[in-house]
Specification:
binds coenzyme A, Acyl_CoA_acyltransferase, alpha+beta, 8 strands, GNAT_dom, eight-stranded mixed sheet, N-acetyltransferase domain-containing protein
Length: 174
């Protein structure tokens, strides 16, 4: 059964390294992870803000709420899945479950951004009840495979505590 649980840098480093080795797109989202030590360091750095998406004891993805601002009741959400865990709706359920927990904690507005050319990520956010609020033109810069810089538009989405909740089965929060 999939569930959400805290990260354990020691235990989860190998699974995270394998996920990053299997997927070039993950390096755009997080700092490059090329060794077990990189994975451990990254997990230790995000442990307070992120949860592992766990399937049968293995971490297959991450959902994170950074930049929490108690003054305004906001946070910035992000997520990823190992390629082997994609295509099953897990990211949307993880994002929805994390969002419900944050609203229960008193946050009011959860925000995220997805590259305009990342339709799967936009679909995940919309499925988890996030609404589009606009496009930030040429917001991000990444190098292409030849090392040339390319700029990307970013679709901004947000979900408010008062927005209708999506009809998704929540993941257990361990
Ligand atoms: C984004 C990510 C988590 C999505 O994983 P996933 O939920 O398993 O994605 P799926 O393959 O099930 O696709 C989600 C939805 O997008 C749709 N989709 C996927 N690729 C698509 C495409 N090229 N065009 C249009 N729709 C697409 C799917 O049909 C699916 O729709 P549905 O929910 O209505 O069935 C995963 O691709 C990932 O980890 N990417 C790298 C990191 C990243 O980009 N994170 C997001 C940044 S915030």
């Amino acid at each position: 059964m999939p569930r959400l649980r805290p990260w354990s840098p020691e235990r989860d480093a190998a699974a995270v390294l394998a996920a990053f080795e299997a997927s070039a797109d993950l390096h755009r989202q997080a700092p490059p992870i090329r060794t077990l030590a990189d994975a451990r360091e990254h997990l230790a750095a995000i442990a307070a803000e992120a949860l592992a998406i766990d399937v049968d004891g293995t971490a297959v993805g991450c959902v994170m709420a950074g930049s929490r601002d108690p003054r305004h009741g906001t946070a910035w959400l992000s997520y990823w899945l190992a390629p082997s865990a994609r295509g099953r709706g897990l990211a949307a359920r993880a994002l929805d479950s994390m969002s419900r927990a944050l609203f229960a904690d008193g946050l009011h507005r959860l925000e995220l951004g997805a590259r305009a050319n990342n339709p799967a990520s936009i679909a995940v956010a919309e499925r988890a009840g996030y609404l589009r609020e606009g496009v930030e033109r040429e917001r991000l810069r990444y190098a292409d495979e030849q090392g040339r810089d390319e700029r990307f538009d970013v679709v901004r989405l947000a979900r408010l505590a008062t927005d209708p909740a999506p009809d998704l089965a929540p993941l257990e929060l361990a």
